[in-house]
Amino acid sequence: MTDVEAILREIVKARSQGYAVVDQEYEMGLRSVAVPMYGITGKIKGVIALTSRARQMSAEVAVTTHLPALLETQSLVRGLI
After folding, report:
1. Helix (H, G, I), strand (E, B) or coil at 15
2. CA-based torsion, 23, 27, 47, 61: positive or negative
3. What mean pLDDT is predicted for residues 46-71?
4. CA distance 81 to 31
5. Beta strands in 1-81, from DSSP E residues, in sequence order
6. Looking at the predicted structure, is the pLDDT value of residue 57 above 90?
7. What pLDDT band is residue 34 in, cutting at 50, 70 and 90?
8. Which letter does DSSP use for residue 58 in this model?
9. Nearest 5°: phi and psi at 57?
10. CB 12, CB 20: distance < 8 Å
11. Which of 15, 17, 34, 72 has a CA positioned 20 to 30 A from the CA of residue 7?
């Protein structure tokens, strides 16, 4: 993705849904689902992501498979960093 408007739309989408999907943007053949990690002040301090090979699962399956574990981890460490 190289179009500025498209990138901004993806940022807005990720903020509203609370997670982001990166589908072969970092590297061809890799798909990631990521959630923000919040510090004690409520500000984002980093992210946690799970990555899989794109040929092994669709983006939709990656979300349904990986996102629940990411959200649980996010909840467990919220405010600890």
Report:
1. helix
2. positive
3. 92
4. 26
5. 20-23, 30-38, 44-53
6. no
7. very high
8. -
9. -160, 150
10. no
11. 72
